[in-house]
Amino acid sequence: GASKRKKRPPCAAHRACHIPSFRVGAFNFMIMNSQDLISFAKLGELDCVNEIIAAGANLEHRDEKDQYGSTALIAGAEHGHLAVVQRLVNVKAQVNTKDTKDGGTAIYWAACKGHFSVVKWLAMEGKASVDIGNNNGSTPLFISAQTGHIDVVKFLVNQAKAHVDAALKTGATPLVIASEKGILETVRWLVTEGRANVSTTLKSGHTALTIAASFGQLDVVKYLIGVNASIMAETPDGNAIETALKYHKTKVAKWLAGENIKAANKALNRDMGFLHMLHPSIGEAMTYEIPEDKFPKKNHAETKTDAQTQ
Q: What domains can be seen in the chain, in order of their start residue?
């Protein structure tokens, strides 16, 4: 009789991935549906993804097994599976679709997890929008600044041209959230290379400096003062020194107070020098210093809130 050929299963990984199957005669048939497409996208199983796509799966099906309602593309991007992402986009999966819980897109979740190659491909080849925010207004740049993925931050600003000061509904920008989290490398890059606005004010009246002060991020506070953030700018919690004291960040408050005294003494001596130049008859210009024990101290006892809810 005719020789029998062995047939490869439709998906070589089906046993490991627990796809249900049934037998008819000599053949095994797998029951694959749109939910399976999401499951295999998460696992990065490209062969299985291809088989299910060929079987006519709904590319926009929402995940029934978790609360986020992700599509296969979102799932593949979040888990960093570039080949799966490329395949899904090439067969016309909607690149800017949002999950149903937080409203994050595929590129948003890839940025959140720091999957640089996926973020880059989606932005440059997949034509994903880099400025679509989630339900709170958080963009891929904001979330990558928040999670400390500096390579993603640099790419989004330099190559993908993401809006560096795109803000949450609260007014918090990528610089503000990086300041809150104490991610100095990101803060420094956003200011020096990204040209982020150091003086941006949240709807609450706070700034990157006062947010950093309230969370005790001394290195960030020092850097922001070095790029001319204002210590004395008023917020609902007072200036930066008062804000640090309110949230019991005494180390930050003490350093800020010292810097403020130095600035005051510098300004005083400068003014006295001008006065001497204008009126030599008053005598030689003198050096004045404000003693530290004359600086006002405040004691507060409130509870801090996260910058994203300011």
A: 199-310 (1.25.40.20)
In terms of pTM, does the model score above 0.70? yes
> Looking at 94-108, 144-158, 252-266, which range is the least confident one?
252-266
CA distances from 80 to 118, 141, 308 (A): 6, 17, 27
Q: For helices 174-181 and 184-192, what crossing angle results, to 10°?
A: 150
Q: What is the pLDDT of residues 75-106, one digit of tens each?
A: 999 999 999 999 999 999 999 999 999 999 99
Sign of CA dihedral 214, 216, 221, 223: negative
Q: What does the buried/exposed string (b/e) look like for 138-174 if buried means 16 or more CB atoms within 10 Å of the residue's CB? A: bbbbbbbbbbebbebbbbbbeebebebebbbebbbbb
**Better-predicted residue by pLDDT, 266 or 206:** 206
Sequence-distant (≥ 6) Cβ neighbours of residue 203 within 8 angstroms: 170, 171, 310
At position 197, the amino acid (one-letter code) is: N
Q: What is the mean pLDDT of residues 14-38?
A: 56
Per-residue pLDDT band for 10 (boundaries 50, 70, 90) equals very low
